[in-house]
Amino acid sequence: MIDFARSLKRASSPDEMTQVELVNLIQHGGTDDWRWLYGKIRQSSEWRARVRRALRQVDPVFVGSRRLWETLLEEYNDQDGCDLRVSKWWLEDEPSGI
């Protein structure tokens, strides 16, 4: 597993994280990474908007991570014009037992 938290601490400014790095953190981050990111979205509408944009790029394989962050963002009403509704195209052929 990639330790994003360690790399963020070494970075000169985690606030300058690229969109790709943010998507990777959402998809592959560990508990410390997600705590750090949750702290950011609780404090800043800019970070909430960044996470909303990143969620559009999350690989459908990581649907669980994506749904978690969508749920966490639902408590904030500053949508910034971003639609959190996810295209369910990858779920159309999903077996009914899941």
From TrEMBL:
Domain of life: Bacteria
Protein known as: Uncharacterized protein
